[in-house]
Design goal:
Layout lengths: L1 E10 L4 H11 L4 E8 L5 E10 L1 H12 L4 E6 L5 E12 L5 H10 L3 E5 L3 E8 L1 H10 L4 E7 L3 E4 L1 H9 L1
Antiparallel strand pairs: 1-3, 1-4, 2-3, 5-7, 5-8, 5-9, 6-7
Length: 167
Amino acid sequence: MKKMILSILVDNTAGVLSRVSGLFSRRGYNIDSLTVSETENPEFSRMTVAVTGEDLILEQIKKQLSKLEDVKEILELKSGESVVRELILVKVKVEPKERQAMEALVNIYRGNIVDVAMTSLTIELTGSQAKLDAFLRLLDGFEIKELVRTGITGLLRGFEEEKRSAE
């Protein structure tokens, strides 16, 4: 099984998300991660979709997506050719005597403490899925009160975009 991350430029119109996600569900494909936002041009949105499957199925997904009228461009965000990130917010129960150690851990991972309460800290951390997973493993022994992940988002590196434009 292979993981593929697609950056899909679509028309910014009502129902586009439903049509794209419907394509996946109708064919029995699972979406591992999905993020959507308006681009620098309000006429378009960019969807970042992470899927896992065999090579044949992944190619079929790209072909089916390209047939949708709302889809303007599909790019595969490959490792080394793109910048891919995810954001987590995690609220951790932390006693006063543990705060200094937690602050040091957050600093090592270049995170931010975005909320402080008497018995908890809310931490914001951005990076690769591997980095975020490693950080969460280090929280073993602490009670995670709440956790949310944004899902993967990414763009081609500038050099790769320039290469594509020249072709």
